[in-house]
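Q: My labmate handed me this sequence with no annotations at all. I'd like to see what the chain might look like in three dimensions before we decide whether it's worth expressing. Could you predict it?
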Amino acid sequence: MKYHNKLINLYSFFIVLCTLYLVLPSCTPDLKVPDPSSGEANFTKTIAIGGDYLAGYQDGALYEKGQRLSIPALMAAQFKLVGGSSFNQALMPDNNGLGVNTKPWESPFLSPFTLGYKTDCHGVTALNPNNHHISLSAASPYLVGVAGNSIQNLAVPFANTADYFNPSFGNSFASGNTNPYYNRIASNPGMSTLYLDAKAQDASFITAWLGMEDIYNYASSGGTSAPIPSSALFSSRLDTILGGLTANGAKGVIATIPDFRTFPYYTLVAWNAAVMTQVQADSLNDTYVGTPTIHFHSGSNGFVIFDANAPGGARNLHSGEYITLSVPIDSMKCNKYGLLISLMNDRYVLDSSEVFEIDNAISSYNAVIRQKAAQYNLALVDMNQYFKSVQAGVKWNGADFNAEFVTGGFFSLDGYHPNQKGYALIANEFIKEINTKYKSNIPYTNCVECDGVLFP
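A: Here is what I predict for the chain of 456 residues:
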């Protein structure tokens, strides 16, 4: 009754306002919300293709709740309001989940990061992202395949565009495949391909985010993994994938690739975070006498890396170069890692030549993505621009979000993948562009159950 009275009062106020001030020529209030509609698209059967982001990978792992609240799953829930149906995913058995360890000499797998208290090498206890190693035997429940070919979320963490055509990508981890995820959903492991499995779905609508892994598998390794494929090769692969999946008239949406500088993974540890007094600088300079490319001074200094092209094979990092979040920070704090005893390994650093290569790849890949969106009549989401907006700060449901690590509310604890709230924000960007392209009216997700960073 109170709610009913509020509506009456609102209506009365509106009428009085119109009568006294002649605000509008016709002043009958229309409180009706437009009905959801599919517009020119058909959401009867949807699939997702891509890598980490569409799979729901976060906190350094793939786990059940992250998958249930992944970008395509959140979108599929909204698609149901305009004729969509169920969206099948190969869910992990629990929220402990499984992440691939980028340092496999330590262990093959890792648990998701959680925020907890940790005492560092100086004896200082503070909140830190923590995880633990998972052995191959302990990982076995998370490596079990899902029978059949009904999986609609075909996004596979770390899958690049070449992997979409490679039957061996579906082999098991035990047989030597370093990626354990496609094996779980492959229709015929070792024989089928991601592309053909996706095509077999005969989807009416496709959510695609391709090219991220082609670039970021290289970037996250400090440029030590396989080189980034040329934009011409990427264009050819994208043609095959999108051409095949839209051959029967499917509509869809595709996203561009963000700048690596918008991720805390590449910006949190500054290249010149070696702060020292003049006495400390002089002591280090004595150590490197005869190496003109290494010099320290009072204040902020660049860490020292191996560089075969520098005199003596080493030099200081300089502005425009980046250290990844995978660097052993405790060793930097207490063992002078990157300064004295052990120089910083290339796998933790993006030097200027690697930065140039990554920047060029992102620019050229995004040009290809824009062209293919137009060619195949797909909605286009400019994630390159959106991530810059997040960096500057955005609002959602009255809350502020930005790209700050832990406190910004958008990224998960691995510094590269968003948390569930971040993924919900991205899902809404996809929905916005779908509505614009296809004249649909799909409501945005609110996702009250989406987690941000969970504090102890």
